[in-house]
Amino acid sequence: MNRTTNNIRQDFLNFFKDKKHIIVPSSSLVPYNDSSLLFTNAGMNQFKEIFLNEKKINYSRVATVQRCLRTGGKHNDLENVGYTSRHHTFFEMLGNFSFNDYFKKEAIEYAWELLTSKKWFNIPVHKLWVSVYQEDDETYKIWKNIIKIPIKQIIKIGDKNNVQYNSDNFWQMGDSGPCGPCTEIFYDYEDNLKPNPEDFLNNKNNRFIEIWNIVFIEFNRISRNNIISLKNKSIDTGMGLERIASILQNVFSNYHIDIFQKLKEHISQLSQVHDLNHISLQVISDHIRSCAYIIADDITPSNEHRGYVLKRIIRRALRHCHKIGMKKNCFHQLVATVIKVMGDSGVILKQKQKKIEDILRSEEKQFSYTLEKGLKILNSEIKKTNNNILSGKTAFYLYDTFGFPIDLTADVCREKNIQIDYNAYKLQQYKQKTQSNINKKFYKNYNNIIVNATCHFEGYKKNKTKSLVKQIVINHKSVSKANKNEYSIIFLNKTPFYPESGGQIGDTGELYNKTCYFVVENTKKYGDSIGHIGKLISGTLETNTHINTQIHQLNRTAIQLNHSATHLLHSALRNIFGQYVCQKGSLVTHTHLRFDFSYQNPIEIFQIQQIEHMINKYIRQNVLITTQMLSLEEAKKKQAIALFENQYSSIVRAVIMKDISIELCSGTHAKRTGDIGIFKIISYSSIASGIKRIEAVTGHEAINYLHKKDNYITDLSLTLHCNQSDIKDKIENLQNKIKYIENKITKLQKRENQNYITQLLKNSYDLKGIKLIIHIFHKYEHKLLRIITDELKQKSKQTITILINVKNNRFTIVIGVTKNLFNYITAIKIMKMISERTHAKGGGKKEIAEGGGIYTEKLSIILKNMPLWLDQQLYQT
């Protein structure tokens, strides 16, 4: 019964291959056809369009081993990972699917044969129980009469709260859409006890574990109370590989199967923990798999969306590495072991091993300092908790300041039996969000309008057309006509105007006929139609009338140059920095281009020049830019660059630049690379952790940019009275002169300070043998107050100094206290007293504090009474 996890995976595929199923590879963890999902979380995700009858396929039987991730929303396993025997962030889902082919009887027979046949998994029949939907008599009879499973091992599950179809055994895709009853197969871990239905329902100590769910998709939910039968019925099944492996390897916990045992052994070697059942080893072994597969699908750590989920997982793993004394910067070393233990499923990791290791190494270096500091603060705050509840304000501070995700803080608190005040945490989140939205202006758009028209885009070959007005929208409502000076959105049957998409801005231009003239200020996509947004300058425009269209050709040409240059930039970045550079966003306008991409290391000036050199070389080659319609599979085989988390149809448009670049793109482009003329990077920056941004110009804009730089250098040389070639030497000479003058000033100031120090010591107060020095300077350098304070403390071993500088009706203050007085008085305590009474702001430490505020007579009075106040403080001690 004992076999490896990799054997089990392959046996499953072999079994269904024998049953005439097409073996479909796992789709990406990033679902390309479902924007509602952050990550692929079930085997059926890639077939969703088929279940919804939105896509046709050439096969009716499919089997897959799908990579899945559950870290948010309905399926949020992150907090439980490591603390239970079944939960994982990453797992593999074995599934077989039928699309209007076999149904209940065959699906159940296949499952039973695979699980119980001696040729396959050979699980004893008495160890398996099944559940069925209470109203699904057909399924019940199949189990009872055909499979002949004992009646006591068939459990009917009814509706909750007497609401029809509200059952654990009635699967639903959502509030509407395909749905149907399901039957689940459970494994009984006990050998000696004779179970009864009550034992199954109570399931104490997780005696029964669900291993396979078979869903019969036979209905379509129209509304809450309306479900109709589907003409085409389908099968959707799912069996967790890790769960079935634990059964076939005769272990209770998923973390005891071969894959995890080998990972935990490696982690143990790198740490101070040798107990392979330690929770931290389980957390790290789970999380390293998740991190590796997420990064392999071109997600990089960031502060939003999928990148933030990855960052959370990495940081939770690193916290556990820190807890078990794992050596610094070695989390990435586990990647090689993951690749080894995952077998055929690890091929995608092997291809991107260096990228995965580089990103994990970089993240660990960045987080190591803040982890130690944040944990120190958290542990300190935990000791101060009342009623074992950590304040939400502290939890939010750790997140906001140190990048501690709330689940990481919860992880630490759980180990110490501390609860988090989540309501207060959410309140802090809300306050920050509200604050960040102050003064923001939102552009009014029309994304929610209903468009009945469809529009054919002809802009790849034409810049003007004669079109029919299909619909006019004003203030979110469809109207029959637009009048002069009204802003509206015009929908046509065909257009040369490119709608804003894929980073490329929408075209501008004009619509006109004999009776009206409409200026198009922007163009956007609305479902299958294209909206021309703008203002009617003259006449009236009615639906069902013909109109001429004309794009602004100069703008379009400039946009095309920048878009083609963006593809060249993407190619150059991958050639210079590595193939794992991944696009994270772009903007293509008629004035410039912007490109965001994943890259962990700093970018040096020589690398920027290297990028420019490579792109301008491509431009000089004057390569022909062509487009080709390909199937999605063909595009992948040609290694076309694409954002595969986007939704693509089965046929895609590839933009090809000979041996330089091939990308899936719907945008408009130049005819040849030589049309771009020249490429110049105008800025580069880091916009988030691991995300870089480059902005550049091409063509005339690039020449204008270079002219401006020339003019600036010319003006600079005239100002410095030197040739352009001598500017650097001239500036260095001036810097040396400034440094010489500053040194002379510093020497003079030191002399002046010594005079001040002598006078201040003479005029000091004596408080029980302690020197108190108070002095007000006028229009003095604030940094000199610090220097004087330090020197005064060195001159006298028991000293309190309060130095004030007044300038333009404002004051700054520096307070110093020698260390041997900390038991009696501190600088921060004096600062606090002054701040409270003058409404000044300030802070600091025991030894030195600084602040400032508006100067009033009140400060003079406080300083006058300071010896008496300090004498009282010293007397109290």
From TrEMBL:
Keywords: Aminoacyl-tRNA synthetase, ATP-binding, Coiled coil, Cytoplasm, Ligase, Metal-binding, Nucleotide-binding, Protein biosynthesis, RNA-binding, tRNA-binding, Zinc. It comes from Buchnera aphidicola subsp. Uroleucon sonchi. The keyword Ligase applies. PROSITE patterns: AA_TRNA_LIGASE_II_ALA. This is Alanine--tRNA ligase. It catalyses: tRNA(Ala) + L-alanine + ATP = L-alanyl-tRNA(Ala) + AMP + diphosphate. It is found in: Cytoplasm. Belongs to the class-II aminoacyl-tRNA synthetase family.
